[in-house]
Amino acid sequence: MIRINGHITLDDSEITESFIRASGPGGQNVNKVETAVQLRFDAGRSPNLTPAIFARLKKLAGQRMTKEGVLVLTADEFRSQDRNRKAALERLVLLIRQAAIAPKFRRPTKPTYSSKLRRLQTKQRRGVIKKARGKVALD
Question: Which of 8, 55, 74, 75 could be bridged to 87 by S-S, CB 3.0 to 4.6 A?
Answer without folding.
Answer: 75
